[in-house]
Amino acid sequence: MTPQELRAFCLSFDASVEDFPFNPQTSVFKVLGRLFALTNLDARPLTVNLKCDPEDAVRLRTEHEGLIVAGWHMNKRHWNTVTVDGELPDRLVRELIEDSYDLVVAGLPRADRLRLDRP
C-alpha cells in the first residue's frame, strides 16, 4: 500500500477527514472529531497507528511480530502501530483500518452514529 492509497482509503469512510494538529508531517484521520488513524505519510518505512480491540491487538502482535507492534506514543492496550511496507497483505491493512474506524464510531454518541448511517 502506497502513502497515497493509505490516505485515500482512510478518507473513503463516511465523515472522515484528514487533520494536522501536531505538525505538518503527521496526518491524523478522524471521524466526527475522533482519531482513528495517525501516520507520517513521508516516513520510511510507512507506519500507521490504529485503534484495536485489546485482545485482537495482542494476537496481531504475536502473529505479525515486528510488523504490528504496540502503538507508538499511544495507549498500548488499545492501539497498534502497523508497518505498511508490503510485507503485510494490503487486504489485512485495509481490514485493520476499517476495524479502527468502526471501533471509534462505536464509541460515538448514538445520535452521531445514526447520522453516519444515513445515505
Automatic annotation (TrEMBL):
One of its GO terms (molecular function) is DNA binding. Keywords: DNA-binding. InterPro entries: YjbR (IPR007351), YjbR-like_sf (IPR038056), YjbR/MT2646/Rv2570-like (IPR058532). It holds the Pfam family YjbR. Gene3D superfamilies: 3.90.1150.30. This is MmcQ/YjbR family DNA-binding protein.
